[in-house]
Amino acid sequence: LDNHLVEIFRNFIDNENIVSIKEYGDGHINDTYLVTTDSSQYILQRVNQEVFNITNLTNNYKQLFISYKTLDESIKHFPDLCKNKDGELHILDSMGSAWRVAEFLDNINAFSISPDIVTSTLAGKAMGRFQNFLNRLDTDSFIDTIPDFHNPHKRFSSFEKSLDNSESALISAAKPEVDFALNNRYITDNMSNIISNNILPVRITHNDPKLENILFKSDKSDAYIIDLDTIMKGTLIFDFGDMVRSITSLAKEDEKDLAKVKFNFDHFRALAGGYFSELTNTISKSEKENIYNGILSVIYVQGIRFLGDFLEGNNYYKVQYPEHNLVRCRTQFKLLKEIIEMETEIKSFLRSN
Ligand code: GN1
Ligand code: MG
Predict the structure, then answer these.
(1) Per-residue confidence (pLDDT) for residue 74, from 0 to 100
(2) What is the pTM of this model?
(3) How far is the CA of 286 from the centre of ligand 1 (A)?
(4) 2-43 pLDDT, tens per residue?
(5) How remote is the CA of residue 172 from the centroid of ligand 2, in Å?
(6) Could you read off the pLDDT of 232-289 as tens digits, one per residue?
(7) What is the DSSP string of 54-107?
(8) Residue 33 belongs to what H/E stretch?
(9) Closest residue CA from atom 1 of ligand 1
């Protein structure tokens, strides 16, 4: 057992014997461990403070948990965070790292690829229900944990900066992707226009609801939402877009064989059906009308974020090899192309649902 991890965990749970502490999951930003004790299991996490402001993050978690209790929700949407001895949701260690402990949910499955239609429908439903819960919260009590997180204009500008700062060898290695990014910047321009018209309702949204951040009960009766770090003001169409990004392609985000990265209409229908069935009464006309643009924007922005990080030498996302971010970028752009080819069919499906 790693003494430092044990010491940190003891701040939250001190009356159970620790059996093991193992690295866990596939998150790109924070460090996650599974702690097994003689009577239970927990998630221990080190929050990446280069990405998140921990004070704002914990403020938002408190809002979430307070609201959860006062609104008396009948369904469980997400796992609880444990309090430390002083009643706080995170601690800082001697090196200044921020740590927290969450409840580990039993009998659940996480997927990086949707295994079947039922799962895609359930993912949509679970996020739809979660959005309905978020709609009841006080928007102003949430602080942005990452300002401009989905701002398409800002994302494009930082991509241009990465391009300027990049070594020429890296730019040559990514020539087709850089060209694609530059040729398709209209996607962020269009989205920026829509946003500046102020027609999209400002809601509290998840902002990172990729499939891996949805945990499915083994009996497929329900699902929980995790990775609540980016819950803040945002727009629903980007949440839907991120689900489309991670659910409709049936390939891993870092799949090297692009032939496997294809837009799957059946899974799209299932996902959208599940999501909209929960949101019929809340989704606005402007959201519905711009949802296709939202999908394009999220996938394009994800592509240029991976590409920009590759060009800058992989400072942001965890990588397993130097081209990892470039490989990730390629899957995003491939999916984006597939979706653009299906524009008419996708739009007509969205109109009739
Ligand atoms: C990151 O932490 P994780 O792996 O759930 C990223 C998301 C990206 C996602 C791509 C704070 O999410 O924005 O969509 O990777 N989170 C942050 O897989 O940048
Ligand atoms: Mg995350």
Answers:
(1) 86
(2) 0.97
(3) 26
(4) 999 999 999 999 999 999 999 999 999 999 999 999 999 999
(5) 30
(6) 999 999 999 999 999 999 999 999 999 999 999 999 999 999 999 999 999 999 999 9
(7) HHHHHHHHHHHHHHHHHTT-SS--SPPBPP-TTS-S-EE-TT--EEEEEEPPSS
(8) strand 31-37
(9) 28
Q: Hey, how many other C-beta atoms are within 10 angstroms of the C-beta on 145? A: 24
Separation CA 62–CA 299 (nearest Å):
31
> What is the CA 134 to chain-centroid distance, rounded?
16
The answer to whether the CB of 206 is under 6 A from ligand 1 is: no
Ligand 2 ion local residues (Cβ < 5 A):
208, 227
Distance (Å) from CA 47 to ligand 2 centroid: 10
Q: Which ligand is nearest to the CA of 48?
A: 1
Which DSSP state fits 23?
E
Q: What does DSSP assign to residue 149?
A: T
Atom of ligand 1 nearest to the CA of 316: 19
State how beta strands 223-225 and 18-23 pair.
Answer: unpaired
Measured from the CA of 227, which atom of ligand 1 is nearest? Answer: 5
Say yes or no: CB of residue 302 within 6 Å of ligand 1: yes
